[in-house]
Amino acid sequence: MERLVYSNTKSVIIKDKSIISLILRSYADEDKKKILNVTANKPRIILDIISACRLPQTSSYRKINSLIKNGLLIPDGQIPRKFGKKVRKYVSLFENLEINIIKNEISVKAKFSEDARLAVFRMMREKIVNFNEKQNVSDYKNYQVVQTKVISVRSDSMIPFLLKTGIVKV
Is domain 4-165 given the CATH code 3.40.30.10 in the classification? Predict the structure, then answer.
């Protein structure tokens, strides 16, 4: 069974049950849904998200961190604040979702936010550049030995799914 089908409008059809479950659980929570809707078209800092959604601060931080950890909120740059501090902005991964149920088969047609797509590319580029700078390279008998480390990524996050299925390519 195919897990993903591309369409011609920069959207994909997700058929993977674990990813669909993650999306449905997130959008079923009213507070998370507000957070994702507020960040769908414009990257915002966390305080702006909380203010725009009119949510309690403590639970909002917990829910925002959950969305970030699951890959539904993507870091999209930083803005300078008082005293030289920088605050990260976040954007929703999806701009639009369409949920279809046909004969007990659930699929989600998802259109990715342009800001999120570009943010994912920037994150990948930064990881690659930082990884190349940190490599320990040594020469031995004209052979080049490169020591690398394993990068672990949460399996229930959207980012590995995007990379594994080829939605986002390096």
Answer: no
